[in-house]
Design goal:
about 80 residues; mainly beta; 1 helix
Amino acid sequence: MKKANTYLSRGLEVGDSKEKVKELYGLPDIGFYEDDEWIYLFYRDWLGDGSLNILSDDYFQIIFEDNKVKSMVLAAYIPID
């Protein structure tokens, strides 16, 4: 059986260290280095004027266990209307 891709485009994968996450993505928008959960928020230029706005319903979450990536979640709000 072939293993599914378990890594992201920057090379992050389950089992990587917190330090590697920090090198690839920087410190989290929500959470501290010592925390077991880091959240990165997404920003978009809705008006096209160069101003960036936080998308509160769109985020990238990383859960750590023993300072290693245990899981990753990419959440996005998709309007239906």
